[in-house]
Amino acid sequence: MFEIKRYTPDLADEWNAFVAQSKNGTFLFDRGYMDYHADRFHDHSLIIYRRGKCYALLPGCVDGDTFYSHKGLTYGGLVMSDKTTAADVVQIFKLLNVMLKEEGIKRVVYKPVPWIYHRQPSEEDLYAIVEICGATMSRGLSSAVSREHHSEWYRIRECGVRHASHMGLTVEESEDYRAFWEVLSKNLLERHGLSPVHTVEEIELLHQRFPKLIRLMVVKENTEVVGGTVLYISGRVVHSQYIAASPRGKKIHALDYLFHVILPKALQEHAFFDFGISTEKHGTYLNEGLIYQKEGFGGRGICYDWYEWNL
Predict the structure, then answer these.
(1) CB–CB of 122/24 below 8 Å?
(2) pLDDT over 80 (residue 192)
(3) Rounded percentage of the chain residues whose pLDDT exceeds 90
(4) φ and ψ at 101, to 5 degrees?
(5) Stretch (H or E) spanning 203
(6) CA 200 to centroid of chain Cα atoms
(7) What is the pLDDT of residues 121-137, one digit of tens each?
(8) Close Cβ partners of 152 (under 8 Å, ≥ 6 residues apart)
(9) Phi, psi of 176, rounded to the nearest 5 degrees
(10) How far is 50 from 57, CA to CA, in rounded Å?
(11) What pLDDT sits at residue 150?
(12) CB-based contacts of 106: which residues, under 8 Å, 6+ apart?
């Protein structure tokens, strides 16, 4: 009944069309997004056909003897349509395990799409990988604001907004990623000794490919960028991919003012605003200062899970 094929570039249109109508896919699975870093990862994405028609997708890459779904993405997992059934998903994972093992793969690392991104319930894969594959789980913790129920902002965040409102700040959409990247890069280097996952050239390229879905919102004091966030916009979720403020921006509460402006607008059209994970070291360390800030804006816990099993 099922046939599993390796993805090749000539199948990009078929792949992208399926992602667009899937019940749990986002634009991160579009090949225009996935392939920006094709030189860093050995792509091993798979297309599952049922009676000759595309039935499911599995974004993936291979590193050594491990299959990842996908190492270069925030989340991955089986991309399904509203016609995908639980029994079929169980069968698909049985076949996938056999296929990957025959290719010399010994381990699978699987990162499903968090449920808030689903357009319909889409957790058939979670059942299959635990019951059929014997997967073990680790968890990262994100913070999201729900349109249906708003948690109150912490007083410290509200005070920050009142202070910032007297500073003559402006919040606007910007195309100047380089100005924000300077703020972001300095922030990450000083606080964590890290660089952004994307270079500024990469984020500019991705914005050009997805101008309505990747957007930069900045806070300015006069003409100076003192803070901002890069937003990834999916059907149900606005995700803050990067958040940063300059030393001056922190002093004048630029981020409090930023989210005071953009959160209500985002939740008018989308069910959730996702601030991103606040855990480190494979989920074993909770950055309490970071999550306290996000909880101060009304964010509450959403798990980003990943599973592993041996073949």
Answers:
(1) yes
(2) no
(3) 92
(4) -65, -40
(5) helix 200-209
(6) 18
(7) 999 999 999 999 999 99
(8) 298
(9) -90, 75
(10) 12
(11) 83
(12) 65, 66, 310, 311
Q: Name the residue with tokens 């999201």.
A: 144
Question: Does the bond joining 118 to the residue before it have cis omega, within 30 degrees of 0?
Answer: no
For the stretch 135-185, pLDDT in tens is 999 999 999 999 998 899 999 999 999 999 999 999 999 999 999 999 999
Q: Residue 166 CA to chain centroid, in angstroms?
A: 34
Question: Tokens standing for 85?
Answer: 């059934």
Single pTM value for the model: 0.94
The answer to whether the beta carbons of residues 127 and 86 sit under 8 Å apart is yes
Interhelix angle 124-131/86-102, rounded to 10 degrees, is 50
Q: Write out the DSSP string of 29-80.
A: GSHHHHGGGTTTSEE--EEEEETTEEEEEE--EEETTEEEE-TTSS----EE
Angle formed by the axes of helices 288-296 and 155-164, nearest 10°: 70
Q: What is the pLDDT of residues 75-130, one digit of tens each?
A: 999 999 999 999 999 999 999 999 999 999 999 999 999 999 999 999 999 999 99
